Amino acid sequence: MAEPPLAVRRRSRLGSAPKRSRPPVGPSAACSPLALKRANTGGEGVPAQRPVRGGTGKRKGDGGVQEGVCWGFGWLQKNLIVIYCNDSEEDMFGDYNSFCEDDSLLAQVLDTEHTRPQDAETDVKAAGEFVLEGLPSGIDQRKQDNSSASETGVICGGDTEHGFQTPENDPLDNKEDLGDSLLDELPSSQLLYFAEMRTKKIDMSKCSSLDKIWRASSPCPDSEHKNRSTEFSSDLKSDSCKNTSLKDHLKNALTENAKAQTLKVSKTKQLKEAILSEEICVARKAIGSSSVDIGPFYGLPSKVKDLFWQLRGIETLYEWQHDCLTLECLQQRKNLIYSLPTSGGKTLVAEILILQELLCMQKDVLMILPYVAIVQEKVWGLSNFGIELGFLVEEYAGSKGRFPPIKRRCKKSLYIATIEKGHMLVNSLIETDRIGDLGLVVVDELHMLGEGSRGATLEMTLAKILYTSKSTHIVGMSATLNNVGDLQKFLQAEYYTKNFRPVELKEYIKIRDTIYEVDSKAENGFTFSRLLNFKYSSNLKKADPDHIIALVTEVIPKYSCLIFCPTKKNCENVASMVCKYLNKEFRSHREKEKQDLIKDLKNIGNGSICPVLKQTIPFGVAYHHSGLTNDERKSIEEAYSRGVLCLLACTATLAAGVNLPARRVILRAPYVANDFLKKNQYKQMIGRAGRAGIDNAGESILIVQEKDKHLVQDLVTSPLENCYSNLLPEFTKGMQNLLLSLVGLRIAVTQEEVYNFLCHTLLGVQQQLLSKEKSLSELVKDGLESLIEKGLLTVKIMEKDQNSKTALAITRLGKAAYKGSIDLSYCNLLYKELKKGLEGLVLESSLHLLYLATPYDMVSNCSPNWMIYLRQFNQLSAAEQTVADMVGVPESFIAKKASGQAIRKNVDSASVNRLYLTFILYTLLKETNIWSVSEKFNLSRGYVQNLLTSAASFASCVLHFCEELEEFWVYKALLTELTKHLTYCVKTELIPLMEVAGVLEARAKQLYNAGYKTLAHLANANPETLVKTIEHLSRRQAKQIVSSAKMLLTEKAEALQEEVELLLKVPTDIPGTS
């Protein structure tokens, strides 16, 4: 067994009082955070706690107080290794020269030096090499950050091969552990100096052993120190025969340490950054391997796990999440589809995969979500991660998004996009040959592939990615998938599924006053559960024949409840009816917070509030549907999430929107509007029942009338609907749009290449379902001919080796159409109206420009009120009235319609309706108040809000359309400003605040009035101050606002920096240079 190391202690000066004895210092006092983690977690064969090797504290002498000094020496078989750490600027020796005064120790040193010179040189040389080799590669990062590993540390170690040993009970029993310990306990000066030595590749073998000891203990040198270093080294080399005293050199080294300037930076902060950088490097290497064991947190830095705990309260993963993340196909970067019931935790898996791609693989990521509200919620939620981990989060929804995105040199980007904006983003990346920068595409609600024009757009996006980039892998998730085989074939993906829910879901149906439990084993699918036990008066039976009050009072106000209703009007009626018959005791539950919510809604409506909400909120009840403004909807959702509201009457859109779970979900009827409920819709709705971490169980109750009993039996027992391609049903938005963009992006330029591409789509996989009349190749031929007729494509003859070959080329109009994502059925009409506008664009106001940006797809659903139409027309100026004549809507026509007279002149109804919508938008931009405009035009607030959102998005599309056509150059600047005003529809001073994710008009007004007037104000705000200053703002919301502002500010700064670097970049093709 090796001898225990000799302890070198400071000796008290003669005549001085003895020093106060101190208890041993444990790892928490002497080790860096990384060392602490290693000590606590341990490893195979490593004890949980390390021996004490140093301490910190204060030592008083006549020369003053010296803090943060830790030193120690260990002798093992006459071999000495000293690593000294000092963060004080005072003279370390002063008049407390205990090392020099220890005669016995110095005698041993001198004896060793004179009697065993060769061994000493070998040993010290080995020690110096060991120290350098033991440092991990992460030290380079520490050098860049001017960071330090620890304030204190003394390392004693050995290697029998080099003549020194380690005790058997020493936990540092291998070179790797000792190297880690060195890194943990060295001060910044030595870490930086070691890094410099590695960088310059100093030849240690040319230096004497004494020179190595000096170098190993030397701090990070400044210019003066480097001069001394050079002089000292040259002296040694010039006189190699001279054997200088080891005592003198040790003292010199220690003195230099004492005098060295310590960098004035936060060691804790710099150390955390160094640890994070080191773990990212390790994880990056690990994730590229095929091994399942990929690091501290699925190949990610341990900080990621800490962030999930701090920001989400997630401490551990479910078993299925671990299994899914460690799938072999993910390690091999294959595509994956995974499906679990709602609330099973699918999103967390996707977020971990996204972080792996951003941090480990250093690739950009695209996340596609179905709705604008969910995109904004996700941007809001992931901005914190971006700030902490050093990546950008960019929003692509509505009118937001840059095409192509800025190419970042340093940071990677997470693009969070709606289906439509995701398609435009992918097109721009393919066009600029940057699709390879996209490492991962995550698709939430993959079953949207089968839903109308949006499904067709999603199919086009995924097909293009699969066809143009072999390095981009796709991960899709959904709670409602059936024909997975087709989707697997289309996406070339593996499939993972589990029937897991963190909270058990019990399904029931109610017929009259009897509740049945859904049981797949029962003959008719149901088994008797119980009878409702609620006393109904005769009046109450008439008002509530479906026993809704009995069902909701079983859970509220202690628990939450959702009631899904077929229509918006039914939502409001149910909310009012429930409150009419609820006990007055419900009003006292969180009464003050309900009054605050009412005040908040009044502020949103500039003093106005919906009478239904004013009646129901005191009872903790509200409705939720598209008739609400964005601000109102957000306030109600936040109040429900906090438990202020316990009951929401809502439409089916909430089931596919933001996450608002409940203890009990009631389906008012098995209908959505007039259509019978689909199985996918039913699963989405009942999936909201049961909140993980809050409820032990979730319940869903479907209210059924006797006439619908058999239909409901089929509903609950039938499988989920299949997912079919929508490229053909949505011909202009689907098939034709795809064919046009394929040629425009030069993915396919011949009919054969186009057909080959179509074979790789979902339509190609399912082409056996096509009608027998036309094959896929015939459909391709017809589609291309149609585009040629519209002037969007042309045919060119290519001659090669005397063999003529036809190729397809896109026209300028065709390119503008696909770049702007314009529906091809409106493409030529838009071009004609823009062309006509150039002849006499009225710029006295924004009315004419607004008409050109009014979306075509809302025209068919518009029914003008002719009296309001005439009143609004008469309020226009003379110049503005000429706009109506220019677009083909004369005043006489409006006047006759308002008076009910017969119309002889033929006027285009589409132009009439479109101008009426333009009047609404024009009034809205002037008044910036949805409430007053909705009252003026006798429309619902939600309709006006939807019109505004659609107009902002369409204006952005028209802008991209005009950018591709030189004759429309005049529209570019005009449409840029109009798009911004439509996007935010607030006073100009509020726009910078509205750019922050999650900040809507009401909140922007609060912030502006409190003095937060710019993005920089918000980014540098103190969340605690925000909570105290802004009414009804929770701490969580304040932190998210600050994080989102920081992310947006960082993104803008990065964009400007990229632009500067691009401008200053020296061209490689300068004439006259070789």
UniProtKB/TrEMBL annotation:
Its EC number is 5.6.2.4. Residues 1-62, 135-181, 217-241 are annotated as: Disordered. Keywords: ATP-binding, Chromosome, DNA damage, DNA repair, DNA-binding, Helicase, Hydrolase, Isomerase, Nucleotide-binding, Nucleus. The gene is HELQ. The keyword Secreted does not apply. SMART domains: DEXDc (SM00487), HELICc (SM00490). Residues 222-241 have a biased composition (Basic and acidic residues). This is Helicase POLQ-like. One of its GO terms (biological process) is DNA double-strand break processing involved in repair via single-strand annealing. PANTHER family: DNA POLYMERASE THETA, PUTATIVE (AFU_ORTHOLOGUE AFUA_1G05260)-RELATED (PTHR47961), HELICASE POLQ-LIKE (PTHR47961:SF12). Pfam families: DEAD, Helicase_C, HHH_5, HTH_61, POLQ_helical. It catalyses: Couples ATP hydrolysis with the unwinding of duplex DNA by translocating in the 3'-5' direction; ATP + H2O = ADP + phosphate + H(+). It is an enzyme of class 5 (isomerase). GO terms for molecular function: ATP binding; DNA binding; hydrolase activity; single-stranded 3'-5' DNA helicase activity.
